[in-house]
Structures are given as C-alpha cells and as structure tokens.
Amino acid sequence: MAINGRIFSSLFSLLFRIIIAASLSSQNQVYVVYFGEHSGEKALHEIEETHHSYLSSVKETEDEARASLLYSYKHSINGFAAVLSPAQASKLAEMEEVVSVFPSHPRKHKMHTTRSWEFVGLEEEVKSQLQSEKSGSLLARAKYGRNVIVGLLDSGFWPESKSFSDEEMGRIPKSWKGICQTGDAFNSSHCNRKVIGARYYLKAYEKYYGTLNTTLDYRSPRDKDGHGTHTTSTVGGQMVPDVAFMNSFARGTASGGAPLVHLAAYKVCWATPGQDKVDGNTCFDADMLAAIDDAIHDGVHVLSISIGTKKPTAYYEDGIAIGALHAVKQNIVVACSAGNEGPGAGTLSNPAPWIITVGASSLDRKFVAPVVLGSGLRLEGETTTPYKLENKMYPLVYAGDMSLPNVSQAVAGQCLANTLSSEKAKGKIVLCLRGNGTRVGKGIEVKRAGGVGYILGNSPANGQEIVADPHVLPATAVGANEAIQILKYINSTKYPMANIIPARTVVHTTPAPFMASFTSRGPNVIDPTILKPDITGPGLNILAAWTGEDSPTRLGADDRKVEWNIFSGTSMSCPHIAAAAALLKAIHPTWSSAAIRSALITSAGLENNNGTLITDASGKHADPFQFGAGHFRPTKAADPGLVYDASYTDYLTYLCGLGIIIADLSFKCPQVAPKTNDLNYPSLAIPKLNGNVTITRTVTNVGKAKSTYLASVRPPMRYHVKISPSMLSFKHRGEKKSFKITIEKEKDTMLSKKIEEGAYEFGWFSWSDGIHTVRSPMAVSSA
Ligand SMILES: *[C@@H]1O[C@H](CO)[C@@H](O)[C@H](O)[C@H]1NC(C)=O
Ligand SMILES: *[C@@H]1O[C@H](CO)[C@@H](O)[C@H](O)[C@H]1NC(C)=O
Ligand SMILES: *[C@@H]1O[C@H](CO)[C@@H](O)[C@H](O)[C@H]1NC(C)=O
Ligand SMILES: *[C@@H]1O[C@H](CO)[C@@H](O)[C@H](O)[C@H]1NC(C)=O
Ligand SMILES: *[C@@H]1O[C@H](CO)[C@@H](O)[C@H](O)[C@H]1NC(C)=O
Ligand SMILES: *[C@@H]1O[C@H](CO)[C@@H](O)[C@H](O)[C@H]1NC(C)=O
Ligand SMILES: *[C@@H]1O[C@H](CO)[C@@H](O)[C@H](O)[C@H]1NC(C)=O
Predict the structure, then answer these.
(1) Three-state DSSP string of 43-66
(2) Is-catalytic flag, 768?
(3) Would you call 558 a catalytic residue per the annotation?
(4) Residue 142: which of 126, 159, 153, 158 has the closest Cα?
(5) CA–CA separation, 231 vs 652, rounded Å?
(6) Which in 48, 505, 581, 662 has the greatest CB count within 10 A?
(7) How far is the CA of 462 from the centre of ligand 1 (A)?
C-alpha cells in the first residue's frame, strides 16, 4: 500500500496535538498556522480571504476573526499568524490542510557580548583592492559580491555608518522587488545602492509585550541595539580604512566579507522591555516568518540569520527552519548561527539540513594587557580598555575582602552592584571573580567604590578563555589559572601590589583558530543523522560597525558612545559564512544553495596556525560537534572540485524519512520510507549503529571536465569504513557519480575496549584528484 502525504500529515497532526496539549496554557497567544506552499496562482486578497475563513471557523464572530489576524503569509509561505486560544489552535491543527500550528516563540537574541578577512586568506586581497585590483583573487573574481543581494534578519541597521555608504556600488539589480519602509528616524533616503531594502516586523512582539516603547527602540528599520549593524556590516560593509575600536584597538580597514554586495535589512528583533540591553533582544517566530516570506519575494540571494533558540525546536514549529525551506526552494542560501549555549553537548540551534549552521572560533588576534605583581610575576591578561594607570605599583586587593558589612565575601568577590566598601577599595586595584553579574558591570562597581584598577578573574568554569571587554576604568581580564595565582600572591604578603600594563593589539597569536567555549555543540538532537554544526568562522572579539548612539557594552550604566565595536558570538560568525556564500554565488550564479553549502563544507580546514588539529578554548582537540567540517576557507570553496548537491525535492523526501511534512502537503513520499541518512549531505552522522550500515552519496563534478578522484578514509576509532568504488572518473563537467560508504563496528576482542554505548567517535572521508581535497566529516556512535 502506498504511503501518501495524507497519511504522513495525519500522523503528523496527531503528533502535533500532543505537543499542543503539553504546552497548554489557558492564555490566548500568537500562533502560527502553517499550510505549506501556495498551490497555483491566487490573488493576494484571495489568499487573505482563505486565511480569514479558517480563522472564522474557530472564532465566534467575523469581527473577532479579523481582529485576531496578525499576518497573512502570501508569497512563498502559506499560513497566517493570529491570536488564538489553545482550544482554537488545536481545532485548526486537526484540519486536513493544516501542516502545523505552533506558538510564536519569543527567541532571545543574545550576543556574548577587521581582522577576519585577513585571517581566512582574503588578506592580501582586501589590501590589494585599496591599491590595484589583483586579478585571479577570490574577491576580484567574485567582483566583491557585485549584483548579489544578502538579506539579514536582525535588529535593523544604522544608516549613517560609513560601512553603508553606496560609493562605488553598482546599480540596484532589476530583479529587486524590495522596499524601504519608513518609520521612526527612518525614511526612504536612508536606503541607497548599498542597503537597497529595509523593512520591520513587530506585530507578534507587540502582542506579547504591548506597544513598543519608543524610548527603547525605533519603530523602523533603524537599529537601536547595535547587533544588526554589526552583522550587516560584517557581511557586506564597505571598506572603511583606519578604523579602530575606542580609537585604540584592532586598527585597520574594516570591511565586510563581500564589500560590494547589496544588503537588505529585515528588522525582526526588538528591545526586551524591563531588561538591560545587555540581556539581548527578542525576536518572534511569527514576525520572522513574515520577514522571510518578504525576503524571498523581494529577491535576496543569501539570508543571514544570527538568531538562535535556547532549546532545540522541532522543524515543524521552528519559524526559521520553515522559512528557510521555502527560501531554499528559490535557491536562496540560508546561513544561521549555531547558538551561544556551549560548551554543553546537544545545545545547538538551527539544525535543519537545508540551513548552513555556523559555529564560532577565534581569530589570531589578542588585546594583551598583562598584570605585573609586586613579586615581579607577570601574568597574561586581555582587554580592550583604553584607560591607563600610571607607571607605578598600586595596592592590590581581592574584592571579597572589600565587602560592605551586609554582604558576604563570596558575593562581594563577584563585585555585584553595591557590594564593595569605598572606604576599603578606594585607590586600589581590585580583583573580582566571574560568576553572577556582567563582566563590565563588575568594573562599574569597582569604579563606584573608588577603585583605580580592575582585574577580572575567570572562575574555574570559565577556564582560560577571555572575552576582551572595554571596561570603564583601567582593567584587564585573566584566565582561571592566573586568577588563582593572584589570589595566592595576595595571601602570601602583607602589602600586595600590582600594575596593569596598558593593552595593545597583537596579531599572529597562536594557536588560532580555537573554538569559542560558548559555541553551541552537536549532536543534533532534532535529527541525529544530520551532522551539525556545518562549519566554523570567526566569532570571538570581532570588530564591526556600531550605531554610534550606543555604548560598546550596551549596559545602561555605561554612557560611552562608539561607531565601531568588538563583539563575540555565533551571531558574529554566521555573517562571515553568509559573505563567503555571497562571493560563491557571484562566481557561480547557477549553483544550487546545496552546492554552495557543500563547497564551503568540503573545503573547510582542520588545522590551526600551529599546524595541529583545531582545539577548544582549554587546548583539548576539538571535534566536528564543535567545528563541523572545520574552519571556512572561501578561496578553496570557490573551486571545490566536487559537490554534494541536493534539491528541494530531496529535502521533502528526507522529511518523509522523519514522518514529517513541511512545505508541500501534496508531496508523495516514496513507498518505502527513505533513511534520513540518505539525504545527499556533505557530512555523515550515524547514531546508534548496530552492526553495519551502507549509505549512498552522489557527487557532481564542478571542476575540470576530465578528472579522476581517489577515496581515502580516516575511520572513527573502532569502526571500519569502506568506500566503493574507491575511484571515480569523470568525463565532463556536471557529471554525477554515486558511491557507497559502509561503516561497520569492529568486533570486540579481549584487547579492544568495548565501544562505549552512545559515545561518538569521529572520522573523515575524502575524494582527491591531486588538486582538490573534498573532505567530509563523520560522527558515529554504537547502539
Ligand atoms: C529623510 O529624513 C532626513 C532626516 O533624517 C531629512 O533630511 C530628509 O529630508 C528626509 N527625506 C525624505 C524623503 O523625507
Ligand atoms: C519606556 O522605557 C523607559 C526607559 O527604560 C522607561 O523609563 C519608561 O517608563 C518606559 N515607558 C513605558 C510606557 O513603559
Ligand atoms: C548593603 O548596604 C548598603 C547600605 O549600607 C546598601 O546601599 C546596599 O545596597 C546593601 N547591599 C546589599 C547587597 O544588600
Ligand atoms: C548566582 O546567583 C544564583 C541565584 O541567586 C545563585 O544560586 C548562585 O549560587 C550564584 N552564583 C555564584 C557563583 O555566586
Ligand atoms: C587565601 O587565604 C584564605 C584565608 O586565609 C583562604 O580561604 C583561601 O583559600 C586562600 N586562597 C588561596 C588562593 O590560597
Ligand atoms: C605554536 O607555535 C608557536 C610558534 O611556532 C610556539 O611558540 C607555540 O608554543 C605553539 N603553541 C602550541 C599550543 O603548540
Ligand atoms: C552487515 O551486516 C549483515 C547482517 O546484519 C551481514 O550479512 C553483512 O555481511 C554485513 N556486512 C559487512 C560488510 O560486514
């Protein structure tokens, strides 16, 4: 008997009703009611009428139905967002035409906070563009991204930033259908040939939080937060020479990765009322879906979405996953951040295989500011604080010993607000430990209490990773080992003394890159047969444009203003990958989004600048659950040799394997449900292997017409991997060849340790023709 879409869909809505029941609250809230694609040509008003009739069928009156409708998604995505009771939502979920109904989740958009392009090898190229164009370089070949349009879902942008000037920008592509939506402090003159489109979406936000407080944010595409300006300029900001953070650090030419792309800002993230800005923005699924639907219609080629979830979300109630699938149907490349929820396992967001999921790693740059102790000991520290102490020794104290009478030593030791005694701390350098409270906020407390200098010490949980912050007084930050050494020194002497050497920027530091401890990790808990993240890019201490109206730390108590800022997060690495995708799109305009993703993945690098495998922040070897295939190498990605291609239909077939229908209810699943592992993905994840498994992959020759590739394997420990055939010969470009990979667990012997159940082992397989190495990571665990 044929298993058709209907069976899948009813199975699916059953699954869904359970979910609704589980998250049942009596409160009315915004739900997304999702129908998949639009079938046939319909006028926009007809679509809205259809949506309205669904709503009317669960609402008491027509007026109530009209009043409850927030969005009617009309272009690619078929669905609407409306205020519903849980009972109304369940009723809609049961209807045959409905794919899913899910609450419009609020998502936090939290940041952990020049050199990126040089570091990934576009270095000479960025410089040479300022002098003369060097032909043959990736940037030159890609014409710096000319004619490619990248859309960002974020907090908007700051139009006055030099990054968004339209000097030397080409004409706006004729295909562009976007608009420049006016609003607070924003009119059509704020778009230009660089930022060609700008829109904003806040209906779901306002249903949740009430009318936007315009003291907190602009009701327009103008960015109040800084995040959107930072990510937008990272993708495609103009080259702006001689830029530095707080006039002191990371001086150089600021440039987007694809400096001549056109940009389009879709503002979907807004200030969270009642929270300090440092705690991040909030973005809602219903608003994001509206933005993606417009972005597809407007004609973007690449979407960069630096928005994650705290908890992994099933595809069918994940607005980004749903929107991205519709985007991919139009061949739009979608890059998303993996999230900042590391270092725990299984923490990553945005795991759908039609998305490029991006982890974060370091650059080879530090902002060095050592501490010198009275004993003569010099300890490494880092900061982007421009303020300096005099060249003499100052009394050094531990904040825990400076507490107010009503405060415990442990609490004062973390320098929380109003915990330090000014009588005790005045004139001293104060050591505070991480824990509760923000890193910069602790310095504000030291300053309030009259301290002259501030040392931020990592707690053991933070290890040796330092996020360089611009503190409000002379300061530096040290790793956990150094913090203990300072505490020991304070204990060891009657008059502990210290100085903090003013910070300076140092490049070519080793080892680099290393994985940021905050970067979210695999395994992919939504579908463990898809290896995620896909790739890593720079996300630690990244300099990019800022609003100029805002403090570098986003703390309410910090009233400094900067036009350039250094921030960290997978939010910062995602736009690097989006920029690389834009360059590839410019060079290979006919490639599918899967081919572009494959090129980026299979060309990624595994080594740091010390020539060893990329490590984590503590110096241990990192693995594909942290970096995916490795660190991106855009120049190599432009000429990958072979690609693992996949079509929109392939994704729908893949979803059949999961028993899920997303975009197309009429899609006929194959009679035998496919294995999810069979999606032609450029990496491999096999959870709970029992005995052996054989998987098929197909590569397409995009290199030389006549070429021969040989397979090689680095099997995961205690597994055998066989590739057959082990040689592929191509006669022309575009030719496809399939091969099989068989993975088998080693027999346990007396000597070998039993393979630990559920523990992942990692390996690689690759195809090489002597010029290209097309490498895929694999992750395997045993049943
Ligand atoms: C747009 O706003 C600017 C001020 O920011 C103003 O100078 C300009 O005249 C306005 N342009 C239009 C078309 O309204
Ligand atoms: C808007 O935000 C400002 C700044 O936080 C606050 O002082 C004000 O009370 C808020 N207004 C409303 C109506 O909530
Ligand atoms: C401790 O007492 C002081 C007043 O002496 C007050 O300002 C401060 O807020 C208190 N701190 C805490 C943490 O309770
Ligand atoms: C941080 O605050 C939480 C909640 O008040 C508390 O449970 C935890 O122990 C604190 N952490 C530290 C390191 O003091
Ligand atoms: C410093 O001395 C205090 C009290 O004498 C003790 O509790 C603490 O563990 C010592 N710290 C270090 C790092 O030796
Ligand atoms: C990396 O290489 C540099 C210079 O070659 C060396 O000084 C350093 O110790 C190495 N670091 C590690 C972690 O191996
Ligand atoms: C794989 O397992 C099957 C039975 O589960 C067995 O018949 C077959 O020989 C195995 N293949 C290999 C390559 O070991």
Answers:
(1) CHHHHHHHHHHHHHHHCCCHHHHH
(2) no
(3) no
(4) 126
(5) 31
(6) 581
(7) 48
Q: From the CA of 777, how far away is ligand 7's center (Å)?
A: 23
User: What is d(CA 647, CA 668) in angstroms, rounded to the nearest whole number?
Assistant: 15
**CATH number of residue 386's parent domain:** 3.50.30.30
pLDDT value at 348 more than 90: yes
Q: Which atom of ligand 6 is nearest to the CA of 510?
A: 1
| Tokens (6 digits) for 517 | 């401890």
Each residue's pLDDT tens digit, 452-472? 999 999 998 778 888 889 999
- Cα–Cα distance measured from residue 27 to residue 30, given in angstroms and rounded to the nearest whole number: 10
For residue 84, what is the domain's CATH number?
Answer: 3.30.70.80
CA distances from 579 to 141, 301, 746 (A): 14, 11, 42
Contact between 705 and 732 (Cβ < 8 Å): yes
Bin 90: left if φ > 0, else alpha if -120 < ψ < 50, else beta.
alpha
Structural domain count of the chain: 4
Write down the mean pLDDT value for the chain: 90
Identify the bridge partners of residue 100 per DSSP, sorted by sequence position: 34
Whether 214 and 148 share a structural domain: yes
Residue 544 lies in a domain: no
Please, are residues 414 and 432 in contact by the beta-carbon 8 Å criterion?
Answer: yes
Same domain assignment for residues 226 and 245: yes
Which residues are CB-neighbours of 751 under 8 A, at least 6 positions away? none
Question: Could you tell me the distance, in angstroms and rounded to a whole number, from the CA of residue 621 to the centre of ligand 6?
Answer: 15
Measured in Å, residue 273 CA sits from the centre of ligand 2 at 8
Does 227 qualify as catalytic in the annotation? yes
When pLDDT is cut at 50, 70 and 90, the band that residue 572 belongs to is very high
| Three-state helix/strand/coil letters over 658-692 | HCCCCCCCCCCCCCCCCCHHHCCCCCEEEEEECCE
Residue 499 and residue 561 share a domain: no
Q: Is the same domain home to 352 and 421? A: no
Q: What would the pLDDT profile of 6-15 be if each residue is shown by its tens digit? A: 233 333 333 3
Both tokens of residue 502?
């003013």
Q: How far apart are CA 400 and CA 431, in angstroms?
A: 9
Same domain, 97 and 190: no
Catalytic residue among 76, 517, 571, 781: 571
pLDDT at 115: 54
In terms of Cα–Cα distance, which of 34, 629, 121 is closest to 364? 121
More confident site: 118 or 280: 280
Q: How many CB atoms lie within 10 A of CB 511?
A: 17
Residues 39 and 79 in one domain: yes
What pTM was computed for the model? 0.91
Q: Which ligand is nearest to the CA of 398?
A: 5
**Cα 71 to Cα 93, 104, 167, 262, 297, distances in angstroms:** 18, 12, 37, 27, 16
Mean per-residue pLDDT, 710-734: 97
Q: Is 211 in the pocket of ligand 2 (CB under 6 A)?
A: no
Q: Pick the catalytic residue: 190, 227, 301, 576?
A: 227
Domain check: are 52 and 36 in the same one?
yes
Find the CATH number of the domain harbouring 700.
2.60.40.2310
659 lies in some domain: no
Among the three residues 58, 78, 103, which one is the final residue of a domain in this structure?
103
Report CA 772 to chain centroid distance, whole Å: 28
Ligand 1 binding site (Cβ under 6 Å of any ligand atom): 187-189
Helix axes 593-602, 570-587, angle to 10 degrees: 110
- Determine which one of 104, 109, 112, 154 is catalytic: 154
Instruction: Give residue 430's pLDDT.
Output: 98
Instruction: Name the CA dihedral angle for 595, 596, 602, 603, rounded to a multiple of 10 degrees.
Output: 140
Domain for residue 320, yes or no? Answer: yes
Taking only the tens place, the pLDDT of each residue in 478-488 is 999 999 999 99
Q: Is the domain of 77 the same as that of 215?
A: no
| Closest listed residue to residue 582, CA positions, set 234, 142, 128 | 142
Q: Residue 657 domain-assigned?
A: no
Quote the domain boundaries for residue 703: 683-782
| Average pLDDT of the segment spanning 528-550 | 93
